[in-house]
Structures are given as C-alpha cells and as structure tokens.
C-alpha cells in the first residue's frame, strides 16, 4: 500500500516551528539598538573635531609680536600674522600723545606666487580634513539611527572617512609647522641676531634697529605658533579619538559580515504502512 512521504506533493507542509526548537528565539538579523548607539558618540566627536577646523582658517597659525621704543619717546606695538590664506600686519604707534594705527592683509598669491602655492597646500589639506571629518560624523550618526540590518560593509564608510580626515589634518599641521617655521626662523634671524642661528619654532629676543626718522628702536620680539595651530592640534586629538572608537565599532560588527541564516531541520521520516 502506498503511503505519502516527505517528497510527495500532497504531503502536508512542514510546520515552521520544526525549524527552531520550542522556546528558543531565532538569532537577530543585525546589531541591537545598544550596539548601534555605540557609533553615536564617535560620530559626534568627529563632527566637533572637524567643525572647529573652521577656526584654523580664520585665525593665525604663526605670529610675530614686536614691542619697542626709540630715543625720542615713540612707542610702537606691531604684530605679523601668518594665516591659512593671507598675511596680516597690524600695529599701533604713539608719539607726543598721538596714536596711529595700521592694519593690512594680503593673500599669499599677491605677495609671492611661489610662497602662495606653498601656503595654500596645507590649507587645502585642512579643508579636506574638515570635509571628510564631517562626512564621517554624518554617516556614523546615520548608522546609529538605522533601523534595518547593519552589516560591517556599511559601517566601514564612516570609519574610512574619519581615518582620511585624521591623515589630512596631520599633514596640514606638519606642513604649516615647516613652512611657518622657515619664515619664523628667517625673520627672527634678521631682526634679533643677524647671521646667527635662531629657533624657528618659537622664542623671544631683544632687538635693536636703526630707523631713518626715529633713530634707534629697541624692544622685544616674540614669535611662534599661534591660535590656529593649537586649534588644529585639538581637532587632531578629537579625530584620533573618533577614529579609534569607530575602528573598534567596525571590528565588533565583524560577525555581521554574513547574514545569519537558520538551518532548517528536516521533518521526521514517517514509516510506510
């Protein structure tokens, strides 16, 4: 006598409960909401670190401050700033109760085309670091809010962008320090101690210069990295923290590289009657 078997089309369908033991919930299809929120903090850190780079495009990276007076009682205070895009000179002078103020900025390209290209290169890296840092934060924030399955390939994008931003900012800091240091060492050598070696990173010295109309001017000059340089360092630290945290989050999601599939269990083989 023929009895229907598991391969027979008329055989009743296998209950879905047979594919998973009773009382055991199926494994999740993606990271939990708590795991997703782990990417939120480094995303915010990346956005903050990249956003403050705007300050480094406005404030000086390197500065020279000169104060002094001459034998006629004239006093003066002057500052020379090396910015990301331009060279600025500001100063005040007082003589017989009369105060005169000056201020002028010029793009590096208008001062010297060769110097302009050199200073625009680190500025370009700064802008790239800012852009990729913000993109890293935006995509990281989106991953933390995602409601569908999040696999490692999707999380790799904010981590890769944070890593690129970190590299660009580091290159910008190094180039600014090199270029500004060369200029700083040259100016300090000419004003403070002509013909001798002077620290280009920063310092302070006394100077004495002969002026055609004011006689001999004596005073003090201080030079070294300024506001934008230290802001860039803070940005670098924040991007570094964000990159390390996003890397850890990326590595923790390795198990989601392949979707977890349930292995169906074959129905029991009933004997024929």
Structural features, described:
Helix 2 packs antiparallel against helix 7 and helix 6 runs antiparallel to helix 7. The chain has helices spanning about 35, 40-50, 55, 110, 115-145, 150-190, 225-250; strands at about 60-70, 75-80, 85-95, 100-105, 205-210, 215-225. The chain has a 6-stranded antiparallel β-sheet. The protein is α+β, with helices and mostly antiparallel strands and about 270 residues long.
Please provide the count of β strands: 6
Distance N to C terminus: 7 Å
**Protein structure class:** alpha+beta
Q: In angstroms, what is the radius of gyration?
A: 33 Å
Offer a few descriptive terms:
alpha+beta; 45% helix; 273 residues
Quick recap:
The protein is α+β, with helices and mostly antiparallel strands and 273 residues long. It is built from seven helices and six strands; from the N terminus they run αααββββαααββα.
Topology:
Blueprint: H1 33-37, H2 40-51, H3 53-56, E1 62-70, E2 75-82, E3 86-95, E4 98-107, H4 108-111, H5 113-145, H6 152-191, E5 203-211, E6 215-225, H7 227-252
Helix pairs in contact: 2-5, 2-7, 5-6, 6-7
